[in-house]
Amino acid sequence: MNQPAHHPWKLPAALAAGIVMGALAGWSVHGHIATGVAVVALIEVAFLLTRIRHETRPMMAQPADVSPLQHDRFMTRTRRIASSLRDLRNAASHLPDAVVLLDQEQQVRWFNHAAESLLGLRRPRDRGVFLQQRFAHSDLSGWLQDGAQEPLNDISAPGEPDSQINVSMLPFGRRQHLLLARDISHLNRLEQIRRDFVANVSHELRTPLTVIHGYLELLDPEDVPELAPVLGEMRSQSKRMGQIVEDLLTLSRLETQHQVADERVPMASLLATVRKEAEALSQGRHQITLESTAEADLLGSPKDLHSALSNLVSNAVRYTPAGGSITIRWKRTPEGAAYSVTDTGFGIPASHLARLTERFYRISSSRSRDSGGTGLGLSIVKHVLNLHQAQLRIESTPGAGSTFTCLFGSARLLPPGGNDES
Ligand code: ADP
User: What pTM was estimated for this model as a whole?
Assistant: First the structure.
């Protein structure tokens, strides 16, 4: 009988290739190489188990038919598969991310070392336990109950309450699931260091800048006419730096804040103020219209909402050529209310829209600088809206204009009235 060619390197090579593909897939989807490796490793473990079962079945069923040669081959193969299986299990056990394999009933079938430390699972106690039951008193409980569809970010680790983790659930095999948890404490610490650094630098720059600005104001260009253009430039640049520092301090404050004071924000007066500011900035170069039909006040921080809403109007004025028009609207929507600013300005190419709210992201640095921008306005808008559970929607047609809309939920609306001071 012709035996198929025997290539002992084929299986390990295929398994290794699978791991590499898993790493690449993990990297390309979320940048999570370890996650990709874990998923493929577990799939390969399942494959090897199935193969062992498949290959042992005929041997067990028909021992009389097996020749000594076949038996030797079978034993060598089994040993090789068993060794690959051990290696894969070992690799998965030592992954830095917690991996928990769940069966169809959401019962724990297997978990690695990181799952013991991060999630507090224990062997053998937690083998076969229902995950929902095991985490009944942790932040994971509600998430599991809701079906764990989306990843859950930045929660305290059940096994190490001082650590923060991101958790996700991946479907796997036949209605099985993999729970993956990643320790993000070090990332949070780095993020905190970055925030503190920016806040401290901005704070330290504030006083020297105020002094420089003060002295520049004292110098009268008429006393030194030959230096008049230089003085003018120095004044405008020191003013710009002052504005950047103030915007950075505002952003630092907003980033560390988790909620806002629930104060009434009277929209009639806020809209009137925003419109006046737009007119002052435009100096008659644009036609500015206000349409307010929502008949609702907002609940939140008056100072932060003023800053966000007026930022959008100031952008509309700065990025709309003279002769253009700007419309400020405050109207009801099915979900709540929308504040929008529409301009007939330069517009924004679609490729830039997704990145506009990043710090210092500009389509044209020179246009932003010339119009007195700091590149931080829309970041501030986004943070303020997040704190008010509101969303920013940007629609734009290059050469025709843009509409920036802030969508507020009905929980943030109040019937108009009460104190009318903004
Ligand atoms: P800046 O201080 O530069 O205006 P922002 O964060 O407010 O910073 O805005 C980021 C960038 O988005 C701007 O540099 C500009 O290129 C673009 N932008 C913002 N608003 C508008 C608008 N209404 N029309 C066209 N471009 C805009």
Answer: 0.71
